[in-house]
Design a protein that fits this description.
By secondary structure, the chain is α+β, with helices and mostly antiparallel strands. The protein contains two helices and seven strands.
Amino acid sequence: MTTRTSHPGIRFANAILNTFRWNLTVRTALILAALVLTSASFAIAAPAATQNAAGDVVVVAVNIRPQGHDRYSFDVTLRHDDTGWDHYANLWEVLAPDGTVLGKRVLLHPHVGEQPFTRSLSGVLIPPSITEVFIRASDNEHGASAQTLRVKVPRP
């Protein structure tokens, strides 16, 4: 995340005013006008800016393998436009059809230069009555993605 040293409107007004070397009163008035105008435009644009700038986390692929005694191993491939520590895919979950969390894989760091990426989780207990599960991913800024991926549970 970059840190701004001043408001963009002030930087813009100063660039124009420095070019023309206007007097202090005119300069102050233009800086205030630019500040008000750019603040208004940011307020209008704010709802669009808050909508998943890096997009939802997408579950690209799932590999599920039985381990025995109703336990399963999952390899889940995710894609997300991680931007760094402030916004990255931070977990995926195995859900029963009723929404019960059967397993959770926490992702401890961003994967900025490594997309898509695959992480595994073993020992997930899936009761015999459940024939399919859902994989849902989340990011640390927006929470759970709207997309889930349905996976049939392979029974021996």
